Amino acid sequence: MSAERAVGHDVVDRHSEEGSALIETIVVIAVLLLPLVWVATALLRVEAASYAARQAAREAARTYVTSSSSAAGAARANTAARIAYADQDVPVGSTAVTCTLSPCLTPGASVRASSRATVTLPFVPKWLAGAANLQVTVSSSHEQKVEQYGGQR
Length: 153
What we know:
Strand content: 15-25%
Transmembrane segments: 20-44
Protein name: Pilus assembly protein
Distance between the termini: 107 Å
Organism: Dermacoccus barathri
Order of helices and strands: HHHEEHE
Radius of gyration: 29 Å
Number of helices: 4
Keywords: Membrane, Transmembrane, Transmembrane helix
Largest sheet: 3 strands, antiparallel
């Protein structure tokens, strides 16, 4: 009879632990997977901002040196930078253009465009991101030569 009780008791113990794997799985997902998803999302946002800053600087310099005047160049560079940021769905950063010679479009001169963008980390409210410094700033610059034989513009 004691052998039958042991077998019956073993069956009861096995049934009393049903469902614990579901709870363990939920805990593992919450503790391990959610932070991993957050880190991956943060890295993707920073990489997109980095690419947008590089593209904005490159396109701003290229459009500036191909324009007909310095005033038109500044407007075209600003538009090109805005398009580059919008292309990567990144908040528009700042873009500045500097020249080695005056006027800027002197043949053989160099035009340098610098671009800077700030990205907040995912799932962080904007009011907390600035106060707790939970932002990443990326920057890039690109230098482009004005055509040597294009004449003064």
